[in-house]
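Take a look at this chain, tokens included, and explain the fold to me:
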Amino acid sequence: MEHSGHDVDHLLKRWRSLADRHGWKVTLLLEVDGLPVLAIENGKPGDRATYLSAGIHGDECAPIWALLQWAENASEAELAQPLLIFPCLNPHGIVGNTRRDQDGIDLNRSFHRGSVRLVSAWKEFLGERQFDFALNLHEDYDATGIYLYELVRGESVGHQLLDCCEELIPREPSNEVEGREFDNGLMMAAGEDVREIIKEDLEDEWPEAIYLCLEHNAHSMTFETPSELGLALRIATQRRFIESVVEMRSKQD
């Protein structure tokens, strides 16, 4: 790339160009220090779209470029699926290479707090929408391999998705991440009682993925790449994950 991994202006310029080319709707959720937070969609609010978001932690820059690269190179069939994309939820954090937003808040622990400006605007925009899949793209400075949190009412597909990505970056070898037990790179809550499982584990922190599962009926997945590896490799791996989920959904439709 000829730009910084934290160049939000360049990122959003390419997203606007892509949206114009395809006739997608671009909505401004709010502005943060003059930086826009955008929602981009190719369908109608009533569609059961695939939800994709990146950039909620500003020190995790590979996902924002992977999401853009995927969208710029996806096939017509892939882009015909209903999509709702948040290309950069924390532009202030990306520019400053910091996890938190302009108010010092970790947004990904705050989706139960209506007083947070982004969360309030995001909830108002989503309304009553329901999603089949929700992809939340992240990175981890302490990890050495890829891993996945999966929340699903039906059957888990987490290991299948990790299989698709591990030829680029191997799975996280640890069986515990942030105090949670993992099975070969996967932590999941699955089955009809997934809501009860999640609620038992919640404290005063609500990540985006959990809110989407509980309130918007999403098969919710948080994918993580290790931040200390090369940027191009991390972008390629994040992109492979997106491609794998979109391909999986196309086979289900």
Remarks:
- Residues 8-252 form a domain with the Aminopeptidase fold (CATH 3.40.630.10).
- The chain has a mean pLDDT of 93.
- The chain has one domain: 8-252.
- The radius of gyration is 17 Å.
